[in-house]
Amino acid sequence: MSENLFLMVAALVIASAFWVVFSPNLIHSAVALLFTLFGTSGLYIFLYADFIAATQIVIYVGGILVLIIFGVMLTNRIDSPSIAASSANQFIGGLGAFAIFVMQVAVIFNTTWMSGKPNTQQSSTEAIGKLLLNEYLLPFEIVSILLLAALMGAALLSRKS
Amino acid sequence: MANNFTFLALFNLFLPLASFLILIFFGKHIKNFAHWVSLSLIGVMLLISIIFFKNIFSHHDTEILKISTNWFTTGSFSVDLGILINNVAAIMLLVVALISFLVHIYSVGYMKGDPRYSRYFAYLGIFTFSMNGIVLADSLIMMYIFWELVGLSSYLLIGFWFEKDSAANACKKAFLTNRVGDIGMFIGMMILFFTVGTFQIEGLIDGVKDGAFNNQINLLTVAGILVFMGAVGKSAQFPLHIWLPDAMEGPTPVSALIHAATMVAAGVYMVVRIFPILTPAALEFIAVVGGITALFAAIVAITQNDIKRVLAYSTVSQLGYMIMALGVGAYQAGFFHLTTHAMFKACLFLCSGSVIHAMHHSLHELKDHHTNPQDMNNMGGLKDKMPITYWAMLISTLAISGVPFFSGFLSKDAILAGTLAYYYMHHGWTIFLPIAGFGAAIITAFYMFRLIFMTFFGEPDNKNIHAHIHESPLSMIIPLILLSLLSFAFIFTIPDTVNPIDSHGWLFHAVPVVSNVAGLDMGVIGDEIHHAHHTAMYISLIVATIGIIISILFYFLKWISASSVSSGLNKLKLYDISFNKFYIDEIYDIFLYKPFMVISRLCSKIDWDLYDQKFIDGWGWFTLKISDKSGEADYNWLDQRVVDGFGKLTQHFGNSLKLTQNGVLQNYLLGGLLGVILLIIVFQQF
Amino acid sequence: MDSLTSYLVIAAILFSMGIYGVITRKNAVAILMGIELILNSANINFIAFNRFGGLNKLDGHVFAIFVIVLAAAEAAVALAIVINLFKNIGSVDVSDADILKG
Questions:
Q1: Do residues B331 and B513 lie in contact, with contact meaning Cβ atoms separated by under 8 Å?
Q2: Which of B123, B623, B640, C34 has a 20 to 30 Å separation from A109 between CA atoms?
């Protein structure tokens, strides 16, 4: 049962990803991206990463995707669809992407991965919180400063003048 | 004593050189006081010569001074320079110094007002230096060096008034003729050097005595004759006498110094020095040359009208006497005649200079620039106007004519005795030599008195000129008086004898009889001369008297008309031949000068038209062509194609590669991606 | 079926899709979507390795959190830039932004 579910979720993710990059309509791409992000969150559930799954939905879908749709709306006339990519670059780009994929797959299947007992703890939130504030305090603070800078940068870049 | 003599000899040599150097470099500043510099230096030189002269009585067979120093050494031989003063050299030194000093004093008056006054005295200085060098030299090479210097000084002095074309030509002629003689001298010197091995005269004498020329006696004869060629050139013997009459273009004191007393005597002096190594055959040749010269020059002198020309030919003739004397072996007689001749010939020239000076001034006052002041036909009756000059000239003329009580008689008598003795010894054709000697004596007496009568006696043809004649200044008179006093016989014979017709005085005793090491027996010659002495004396008295009487008849009493006799003789063209100097100059012109000029022009044409124009310029044309091609290669090929080609290639590539920068970010990303893939593949291989 | 390699393969596919999207798409916002795909694939990798790697800690999760945070910040700034681009050259077609063309 869970295997079938897993395959379905995986198929959703991959199919949505395809539609994101191949769709001629930008809104369709955005919606496909939504489905991809949902699928990814499902994959996280399968990987017993409950906190991350929730965070993914909240931030990615609720924040970033909305922002992207904002961008789409603000920079396009909604009634004219976007033009597809040029053909030359399509071929070369596809070739390159495929090569990358092939290389990665080769590496994946030729490496003996370290294996141990799968991690199956019930709730990760507390553990993540502890880690964040003990071992990863410095990156935490730096990321907060970075967020501040990004905030200021975005505000500056979109000034009226 | 020897050390002192060294310094004195070196002073003697270099004082006139100092005079020359000072006057050449500072003459412009000294100007009219130049004569004080040279008179003081030459005066000191005269005193030194007198010191050497005083020593000849104590050194009869030894030298007064002999020093030498090494000049250079190369491998197998070395050349030395040195000074040799024996009695002959000491007497000659005094003669040179005395005549030079007197000529310096005379020139103060004669050359007054000349624009190149200081340079004249400078040239006299270098001449005296060179002449001293010849006298003092102990080796043939050193003598040769000063020989050439004397030739140069003569050139400078003859051509002193070089603005006149005739003077410029004359000095050139003198120098070149001297050079012809010097070639022979050099070849002879080299023959002697390569056979014996040294240039030193004493070394040569010893070498010949030791037999360096055994089996080669003809070579020694040839060497002797060749060295004598230098004397032929320098002492104006036939056939190289042509320069001496032309040399009269120089100032008269120069003629007195150089062409009467000293330079022309250098040839005789040289023969005296090398007398020991001259073979009998060479001496015979020398005697014949001297005899021909003596007779020939005397014949030419009869018809000359220029007062200095007469004296010039007279000098040539007297030099012939001296050479003839040496040739017949009358060694001491020849040298004796050299000394006496120096005195009276210098006096004669200076007197003629005095006359010319007076004539010049007179013509200048008359504003007459066309009449020749040296032509005797324009003179006449100067006896009353210029008494001192007249008496000095008369005394010298008596001396040269061989009248007893005067010095010329003694020396000429000795020479004529020598020629007679030679004939007695050899007979046959050698009768020519006494005939030449006595013939020249009679002719000499004739033309010298002709000169006296035409100049000082009779009525002057041009009264105007005569009116303005006056005696010369004191600086010119004093040397005349001194020299005429030295022309008396007793000067040369005291204190040994006061017999006016006995020539064996101090000079004869001072000059030793050298022994000839080349085959001549001087003892036999001495005996024969002794036997012929009286005969010669009587004959010379007779010929002198006849000559003077004929001259009186022609020119003083005018009982025989000179012009009718000369036109009568001219039926045989004799007058013309004599007047035109036997046409020697013209013959040389046709046979020597003109062919040489043709060859010279041919060489010039080859060098200029062919070599310069075609060959040298051809190289230039060739180089230009190569340079054109090279320039073309550099510009068209290297610059345009290679260098610019690189630029164009770079530009082409740049244009092509520019297309990759299309500004679209995605393409850069694509490029980056492909690069990463490539890198991974490459890394994966290794 | 739910082993490490399958998760990694899924991540690889997402990654390649993302690369293709970045390189090929002409619209600037579409490129941003491709970038989000790439970041998500990285996240999947982190979480998968954390679960199957034998670690007792949750470092992978922390990394994934950071990645999400950075993705958000970057998306914000990038969209601000795209808005600016749109204001300056009037279109979001990236091939129109070729002022740096050589």
A1: yes
A2: C34
Measured distance CA(B4)–CA(A155) in Å, rounded? 123
In a domain, C87, yes or no: yes
Residue B573, Ramachandran bin (φ over 0: left; ψ between -120 and 50: alpha; else beta): left
Closest CA to B525 of B432, B423, B413, B427: B423
Cα dihedral angle (B624, B629, B631, B637), rounded to 10 degrees? 180
The pair of structure tokens assigned to C98 is 């070729």
Q: Which of B441, B204, B414 is nearest to B328 (CA)?
A: B414
Total number of domains constituting chain C? 1
Locus of tokens 């002794």: B530
CA distance B34 to B25: 12
Query: Does B499 score more than 70 pLDDT?
Result: no
Angle at B519 between CA B516 and CA B522, to 5 degrees: 45
* Domain membership of residue C45 as a residue range: 4-96
Contact, B304 vs B495, CB < 8 A? no
Identify all chain B residues contacting C101, using CB atoms and an 8 Å cutoff.
661-663
Going from the C-alpha of B548 to that of each of B341, B389, B444, the distances in angstroms are 19, 20, 9
Chain B from 182 to 221: CB within 8 A of any A CB: none
C45 contacts chain A (CB < 8 A): no
Residue at A97: amino acid letter: A
Question: What's residue B476's pLDDT?
Answer: 84
Which residue type is seen at B192? L
In a domain, C102, yes or no: no
How many angstroms separate the Cα of B27 from the Cα of each of A141, B16, B100, B162, B475?
111, 15, 20, 19, 21
What ipTM is given for this predicted complex?
0.90
Residue of C nearest to B671 (CA): C23
Report the chain B residue with the minimal C-alpha distance to residue A93. Answer: B670
Give the one of A92, A99, A100 whose C-beta lies nearest to B670's C-beta. A92
Q: Report whether B454 contacts B383 (CB < 8 A).
A: no
Is B346 within 8 Å of B256 (Cβ atoms)?
yes
Q: How far is CA B467 from CA B365, B375, B463, in A?
A: 11, 17, 6
Q: Which residues of B touch C18 (CB under 8 A)?
A: none
- Structure tokens of B566? 């000369």
Calpha distance C60→C44 (Å, rounded): 10
Hey, are the CB atoms on A51 and C61 less than 8 Å from each other? yes
Query: Residue C21 falls within a domain, yes or no?
Result: yes
Residue written as token pair 């062509």: B625
Closest residue by Cα to residue B249 from B201, B309, B316: B309
C-alpha separations of B354 from B444, B460, B659 in Å: 22, 18, 114
C25 within a domain of the structure (yes/no): yes
Which of C23, C97, C100 is facing B670, going by the closest CB pair? C23
Least confident of B124-128, B150-154, B496-500, C6-10: B496-500
Q: CA distances (Å), B1 to each of A11, B83, B672, in order?
A: 144, 15, 115
Q: Which residues of A have a CB under 8 Å from any CB of B?
A: 89, 92-93, 96, 99-100, 103
Model pLDDT for residues B643-654, shown as the tens digit of each residue: 888 899 999 998
Neighbours of chain C (3+ CB pairs under 8 A): A, B
Q: What is the pLDDT of residue A85?
A: 47
CATH code where residue C60 lies: 1.10.287.3510
User: Does the distance separating the beta carbons of C58 and A10 come in below 8 Å?
Assistant: no
The Cα–Cα gap between B123 and B385 comes to 33
Torsion of CA B146, B148, B150, B151, to 10 degrees: 170
pTM to 2 decimal places: 0.66
